[in-house]
Amino acid sequence: MINGINHINISVADIERSFLFYKDIFGFNKPLCKSEGSAYFLAGNPDDPECLWFSLDLDRSSLRRPSLCNTHFAFSVNDENFEALCQHITQSGAKVFKDNTSPGKSLYFLDPDDHKCEIHVGDWRARIAAKKANPGNRKNVEWFV
Prior knowledge:
single chain, 145 residues, alpha/beta, 2,3-Dihydroxybiphenyl 1,2-Dioxygenase, domain 1, four-stranded mixed sheet, 3 helices, globular, lactoylglutathione lyase activity, metal-binding, Glyoxalase/Bleomycin resistance /Dioxygenase superfamily protein
């Protein structure tokens, strides 16, 4: 049985540029290490044994362009920090790739290598409750919770 997400690893074209983006702009203020070919951060409370770690791997061969699908990774933020972080991210030059139409506060933006990112206020319980209250155009929804 899966217990949770262990880590996220992404390929980047420039370790230093991405390191600075994720540390200074995105707010991963707990870097673990950085080399010419990789960098590691903690995303969350380092005292939590299940704290997510996030890694960057240098890969200049990858094609860099945003995916057309909605595949992305989302990180939780507190409501009181949301607006300030949104402003910080957009002022950094990060491109917003879509408007939020989902329940809860979200900002969808691209990192320096065009990986789709999201910051979000809320949890899965709030999302499911909102979808139950207003399923939109979804038909024949089978709820398990």
